[in-house]
Amino acid sequence: MTDQQVRARTTERLEQIRAEGRSALVGYLPVGFPDLPGSIDAARAMVDAGVDVVELGVPYSDPVMDGPLIQRAVEQALAGGVRVRDTLTAVEAVASTGVPVLVMTYWNPVVRYGVDAFARDLAAAGGAGLITPDLIPDEAGEWIEASQVHGLDRVFLVAPSSTPERLAMTARATRGFVYAASTMGVTGTRGSVGAHAEQLVADTRAAGAERVCVGLGVSNRAQAAEVAAYADGVIVGSALVRPLAEADSPAEGLTALAAVVKDLAAGVRGEAR
Amino acid sequence: MSGLPPREDPFGIDDALQDAQDVGPTRAAAGEGPYFGDFGGRFVPEALIEALDELSAEYDKAKADPDFHDELTRLHRTYTGRPSIITEVPRFAEHCGGVRVILKREDLNHTGSHKINNVLGQALLTRRLGKKRVIAETGAGQHGVATATAAALFDLECVVYMGEEDTRRQALNVARMRLLGAEVVPVTTGSRTLKDAINEALRDWVTNVDSTNYMFGTVGGPHPFPAMVRDFQRIIGVEAREQVLELTGRLPDVVAACVGGGSNAIGIFHAFLDDADVRLVGLEAGGDGVQTGRHAATITGGAPGVLHGARSFLLQDEDGQTIESHSISAGLDYPGVGPEHAWLSSIGRAEYRPITDSQAMEAFRLLSRTEGIIPAIESAHALAGAMQLGREAVEAGAPETVILVNLSGRGDKDVETAAEWFSLLDEGES
Ligand SMILES: Cc1ncc(COP(=O)(O)O)c(C=O)c1O
Description:
The complex is a heterodimer. Chain A is an alpha/beta fold. Chain A has a single domain (3-12, 20-266), classed as TIM Barrel (Alpha-Beta Barrel). Helices cover 50% and strands 13% of the residues of chain A. Chain A contains 13 helices and nine strands. Chain A has helices spanning 3-7, 9-19, 36-48, 68-79, 84-95, 107-113, 115-124, 141-150, 164-173, 197-206, 221-228, 238-246, 250-268; strands at residues 24-30, 53-57, 101-104, 129-131, 153-155, 157-158, 178-181, 212-215, 233-236. A nine-stranded parallel beta sheet of chain A has the order 5-4-3-2-1-9-8-7-6. Chain A starts with a helix and ends in a 5-residue tail after the last helix. Chain B is of the alpha/beta class. Chain B is built from 17 helices and 14 strands. Chain B has a six-stranded mixed beta sheet, sandwiched between helices. In chain B, strands 1-2-12-11 form a four-stranded antiparallel beta sheet. In chain B, a hairpin with a 1-residue loop joins strand 11 and strand 12. The model of chain B is unreliable at 1-33 (pLDDT under 50). Classes of the chains: A alpha/beta, B alpha/beta. Residues 113, 139-140, 142-143, 218, 258-265, 331-332, 376, 378-379, 408-409 of chain B line the site of pyridoxal-5'-phosphate. Pyridoxal-5'-phosphate is lined by residues 113, 139-140, 142-143, 218, 258-265, 331-332, 376, 378-379, 408-409 of chain B.
């Protein structure tokens, strides 16, 4: 696989979806929850049910951007012995379905692995790039260089508090899409998506971003439809982890997960109900 | 001041940006650190950057404002009890090879430790920021108590995050904080200790940043905390340097302090950084011994990485997962350390060595018996360091050595732990 093919993967897919006149559904699941094979099955089930871009989380001991639901899932994954290199196994297994697979990771596991080595191995596994919730572009020199060398996407976050200068800087540093955090806060399902989200997307585009996806707090079809009306993609995490966490058996979890994904997939197609 | 130049090109970002032609210049490339060599920075969610920028800007303004300094000085005189005295301890010094040992008495501060120096500065800043709510993390409860105290004094709403494990180990401090009007939130995720309390405080801050100031308790975390907390603690060394000069007619040969996150140590070290002949020694919590893996000696036994917003040393496994620390001293029981210490260690300006639980408790007992001063167990690590350093100096033919020890806190909070360690109470009494 050449760099060129890898490099454009997320962008191409998002552009195709835009051409279909809809928004993309980006689904997050942590690797190793409920266990490694279970997380791969779940990610593949998510793709079958209509997720367009997969986001696989590297379990980390100190997930400051995550709310209780994902914290507990990740704790269980770590207690089960999942390793950072297992993420690459999962990426390979899910990327073979043909969807772009991004890895969501806090920064220290990558520092420890070696930034360039991780980028190299992620590219070799067929991964599309990284989403880095605690790495701002200001601190990302080594990652920017490695991602250029290995042809990977760099998804940085913006927040309602970001200044216009920072929106512009982040838009320039990004490849793939900018991740707009809908609200000031951590992951978790919420009654409503932040009122600031639409304005943030508009501001981020005005600052030069070509593609902006919205995450944090989206949990149902109506919210997905609402966000899809103005964003290139709708990012869902906790609402996908919940059915797995609450299921009595892995099989039940997969069935419940597929139902949630189908509902959200209808949402990003503008079918609010 | 020993200059801490902002790094010009952290992680080669200039090169990287040159390679990446579709990426513009960034702030770090523009040199707005500050970094301490390879350490420091801001490894936090974007959502916090605005608040950190606001805090940095307000702190820069306050630093240049004589009124701010006057107000802080007045509070320290009339509330903290500054300047804190120094005490020479000849009977204890007999156990340090017979060298001269001088204690800087931060234990005599209001609330019982050096933590008050920092929180009063940060409380004044909170008022300048116009914020009405403060949050803090605490391990042993000392920083939590200091924060709750400042919040009472300044009429601020106060929420303290504390690992559930620690709320049990330090129940009296939980009661103290509640008496002072603070809400104490037990943290039930992760290892349920200080590092998880910091995670939870960061989550609160991301969510409530408009109304809330985070009063960080040590010289760790994202910029500006390491430099700002250091500046507020710097008074320890500034006073002690003058006091030792006055008492002995010269500078100390060694300055010793315990290192948890590193605030009392950097506080006493900083005024001596340019005195090249003064040895700076940080004593880390060696727990059961660094070789056992059950310790909190971050620089001695850790490796570089990113935790709680800064690049520094930390205890981590081969995957970069934070490893739980162990120490008899709750205030040193933290798997990270402030970035300036990582830098001082890397350039050889300061040395760091571990002190085991038993060595610290021996020093704890000795100071109590020989001088009538019951130290915090944290500070007892520094005292145990002085015992080693004094004996080494005498062996090396330098019996005239003067060691300045930062007695960062008093031992009232540790009486129960000590009673258990030394079996001081008979069955039925405890
Ligand atoms: C008395 C005392 N000394 C030292 C410490 C360790 O903190 P630092 O290393 O930031 O001084 C604590 C923390 O609770 C403390 O209470």
